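Late entry, written up from scratch paper. The run itself happened at the end of the previous shift, but nothing got recorded in the book at the time, so transcribing now.
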Amino acid sequence: MSLYSKILKIMEEELPDIGPYILKKQLKDLGIEKEGVKAGDIPRISRALSEASLMFGKEKAKKVAKKVERVVKVKKLIETEKNPGKKMDMLMEMAKSRYFGGEWKESMKLFEDG
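Output as recorded:
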């Protein structure tokens, strides 16, 4: 199953009526083709979906972000990233996801780490 298919399944489960459309719109805004979703894109996608899901409440935004991040074990991905710039960008995206989900302390820690 592709990364896109895994994320689509999450969005269908969490927001059955509108989730797939939110995913499509966010990927378009990020300039990512559904066939081209890579592990390194997951922090950006997670942040974008979390922000878009915020209109359904902080808990929904948090749940969406964490489920999407589990698709590729984002924390491990960041730990093993060799490029400092990419690593910082991923940490910032995760920090924003936590912010939208109302997890202020974790968000601040990630901002500081980045």
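The helical segments are 3-14, 19-30, 42-53, 58-70, 74-80, 84-100, 104-113.
(Scratch paper discarded after transcription.)
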